[in-house]
Amino acid sequence: MQPNELEQWKELAITCAKTAGKLSLEKMNQPYTVNYKTSASDLVTAVDEEVEQMVIDMILKQYPEHGILGEENRFQGMAPSEYDTLWIIDPIDGTTNFVHQQINFSVSIAVYHKGEAIVGVVYDPSRDELFYATKGGGAYLNDRQLRIHRQVKLEEALLCTSVFWHKRAEQIGIDVIFKELAGKVRGMRLLGSAALELSYVAAGRLDGYVSLQLNPWDFGAGKLIIQEAGGTATTMEGKELPYDAKSSVMGCNPTFYEELQQFIRSNMNLIRSAQDAKDHT
Ligand code: IPD
Ligand code: CA
Ligand code: CA
Ligand code: CA
């Protein structure tokens, strides 16, 4: 990577995110088709596809040798791991909100180089809020640098999670833990756009965000924005987030990350031992 490339990629990611966000806003009040992907709660609109195509065209015009991993699969190329430089894009994160609320959706664009996140951009067009970060260059909301500074204990945390609604939660017993957790923390929130929720952790509007399963286009940009704001972003097991596979995600204010991990881990063990005892009776 040349020294000026990081800055050029950041500028292009910001231009793409802003152009994409504006296109979504324009199209929002015109008729568009809505299709079900896997079910009535998994939507894709013609706008998701049009926006993704536009962003792909903008990137390839400048960097035809780069790879792109987009949620709506509009890029036909090699496997993501085959590219030195990979753009990971979610044209509309929060499609359900786009359709129902016309607010609380975002564009998420991340640039990975040799497997490492180096640019992350999340743009909320309805509030004109741009969250972005570069590796080693800090995180920003519009012109303001973001620094997570609040000291938070678990009981003081404002936590965001979609775990309750995840089918796997009941199977692995984690829904019970999150019910416990909901009674322990100061409050729970759910916005419906993972990229925005992660960016809100970086901005201190939320203290933590936990999801059982997301795709790299949901968390690729938000992860770097949290880390560059001084926060922690890992899988729920504390491992590094992948760029080419589904994963659980835990993005946190670092002062309460360990306490949250510990709470989940010890309650998981309690559930496991109760399960083992039951299996042996
Ligand atoms: C969804 C949103 C939502 C999260 C889902 C994602 P989409 O993305 O980020 O907050 O809970 O798991 O699939 O489909 O609206 O881009
Ligand atoms: Ca989707
Ligand atoms: Ca998404
Ligand atoms: Ca999407």
Helix content: 25-40%
Which CATH top level class of the largest domain fits? Alpha Beta
Unreliable parts: none
Secondary structure category:
alpha+beta
Averaged pLDDT, please? 94
CATH architecture of the largest domain: 2-Layer Sandwich
Report how far the terminal alpha carbons are from each other: 61 Å
The number of E-state strands comes to 14
Counted up, domains total 2
Bound molecules: D-MYO-inositol-1-phosphate, calcium ion
Determine the number of helices (DSSP H or I, runs of at least 4 residues): 8
Strand content: 25-35%
CATH topology label of the largest domain: Fructose-1,6-Bisphosphatase, Chain A, domain 1
Radius of gyration: 19 Å
Shape: globular
Order of helices and strands: HEEHEEHEEEEEEHHEHEHEEH
Instruction: Report the CATH superfamily of the largest domain.
Output: Fructose-1,6-Bisphosphatase, subunit A, domain 1
Largest sheet: 7 strands, mixed
Biggest sheet strand line-up: 3-4-5-6-7-8-9
